Amino acid sequence: MSDTKPTLVLVPGAWYHIDTYHKLIAVLEGQGFRCVPVALPSSTTHDPATTFLDDLQAVRRAIVAETDQGRDVVVVVHSYGGLPGHSASKGLTLPRGGGGGGGGDSTTDKHGHVLGFVGLATGFTVTGKTLLDGMGGAPPPLWRIDEETGFAVVQGDARDAFYHDLPEAEGAQWVARLGRQTMRSLREGGEHTYSAWLDVPSWYVVATEDRAAPAFVQRMFVQQAIDAGGEVTVRELPTSHSPMLSMPVETAQIIAEAVAEFVARKG
After folding, report:
1. What is the Cα gyration radius of the chain?
2. d(CA 130, CA 142)
3. Angle at 54 between CA 219 and CA 69, to 5 degrees
4. Are 24 and 37 in contact (CB under 8 A)?
């Protein structure tokens, strides 16, 4: 393995366009990081048949393209992106004590590995459960499932929910960029989900002004993960659901700190 920094694979949330990472990537690339954002098929194909497995496979391809070249990876996940981000890392995480990583098809020493995760206003995937399973089977008030079209539909003021701390015009621009999220990605595919955050450490950014996933809910997710045996370091930023857009410099700094810790732990 070389002394280069791990690659950052960045996974967006439901409905979010890949470009919502562009500010953050600009800062991180300025710090010498290689960044690989992943467009999720469930929000970009506009095909209601697109599944969670399609998202998982897209993220896994991005990770494997790096690890097969001997580069380590840190996976940055936002909101729903935690589900495919964690699940796609099965078997690719850094082995502990010389064993296999993640309980799956462990890689060999010539490969890179997933060293850890950085979560932005997200959850922690539970093996065998879909996003809706984790919500008790029903969507939150923010969105509903349109059975006729096969898509999940944001209700109410999306700018207020996702981008309220951005200038009004910029927030409106990002609302216009929201994709169509398939219903199947959110309520099917539990047989493919995996809690890879139990295999490696995580850092978590609580967005304290989040109106889509309130801070108390995020802190609950973190505590549940810790209670389940996860290792989670928490940082907080006073942002909306989109810290990568409203506070990209501060978000990048937290990611850089997390990566430094992951690399130091690897030794």
Report:
1. 17
2. 18
3. 85
4. no
Q: Is the dihedral of CA 34, 92, 230, 240 positive or negative?
A: positive
Concatenated DSSP letters of 172-219 = HHHHHH---EEHHHHHS-GGG---GGGTS-EEEEEETT-SSS-HHHHH
In a domain, 2, yes or no: no
Strands 151-154 and 181-182, bridge-based pairing: antiparallel
Is residue 1, in this structure, part of any structural domain at all? no
Cα torsion at 153, 219, 84, 75 (round to 10°)? 130
- Residue 263 phi/psi, 5-degree rounding, is -65, -40
Residue whose structure tokens are 């990002």: 174
- Which domain does 151 fall in, by range? 7-266
Identify the burial level of 86 via C-beta atoms within 10 angstroms of its C-beta, where 0-12 means exposed, 13-18 middle and 19 or more buried. buried
At what angle are helices 248-266 and 22-30 packed, to 10 degrees?
50
Distance of CA 77 to the CA centre of its chain: 2
Q: How many CB atoms lie within 10 A of CB 255?
A: 26
**Looking at the predicted structure, is the pLDDT value of residue 209 above 70?**
yes
Mean pLDDT of 248-264: 98
Give the CATH number of the domain where residue 185 resides: 3.40.50.1820
Structure tokens belonging to residue 232: 């989670």
Each residue's pLDDT tens digit, 59-104: 999 999 999 999 999 999 999 999 999 999 999 998 864 433 444 4
Q: Rounded to 5 degrees, what angle do the CA atoms 41, 79, 91 make? A: 70
Contact 78, 13 (CB under 8 A): yes
Q: How far apart are CA 184 and CA 146, in angstroms?
A: 11
Out of 126-140, 169-183, 248-262, least confident range: 126-140
